[in-house]
TrEMBL record:
<keyword id="KW-0175">Coiled coil</keyword>
<protein>
    <submittedName>
        <fullName>MYO5B protein</fullName>
    </submittedName>
</protein>
<feature type="coiled-coil region">
    <location>
        <begin position="3"/>
        <end position="103"/>
    </location>
</feature>
Length: 149
């Protein structure tokens, strides 16, 4: 059951990440198309405008494109950061799965002791605190004891 839960969580996170990446790729493509349309319209305007308007138009377009490029770079950095976070979570989950599989071969009393140590070690490694904690009702005394100590 624990292994299946972890696998389901991993699959859900992977699916959400892939959907988010696909949506962002579509957004980038739409922005590129819009930029090309505006550039074509701008080039047509250049042929009809006096020299001062052309220079002013160029400055505006350069400013707009620079801002758009900065927004796209920021978006890319955000996606790369999210990817690193997801890879780190995947490693943590894979470690939990390996530890869980290894603990299945142990004696029940030994296994319970190992799970407590594993939980404490994993909690120390994770630095991304969200302010909420999900736990099973039967683990409440252990959780309270760990919080106090």
């Amino acid at each position: 059951p624990f292994l299946r839960l972890l696998e389901a969580q991993l699959q859900d996170q992977r699916r959400e990440h892939e959907e988010e990446v696909e949506a962002l790729k579509n957004q980038v493509d739409a922005m590129k198309e819009e930029m090309e349309k505006q550039q074509q319209a701008f080039l047509q305007t250049l042929q009809l405008s006096p020299e001062a308007q052309v220079e002013f138009g160029l400055q505006q377009e350069i400013t707009r494109l620079t801002n758009e490029n900065l927004d796209l770079k920021e978006l890319l950095e955000k996606l790369e950061k999210n990817e690193k976070k997801l890879k780190k979570q995947l490693k943590i989950y894979m470690k939990k799965v390996q530890d869980f599989e290894a603990s299945q071969a142990m004696v029940p009393a030994e296994r319970r002791w190992h799970e407590r140590n594993m939980q404490a070690a994993v909690q120390r490694k994770e630095k991304d605190f969200q302010g909420m904690l999900e736990y099973y009702k039967e683990d409440e005394p252990l959780l309270i004891r760990n919080l106090i100590t």
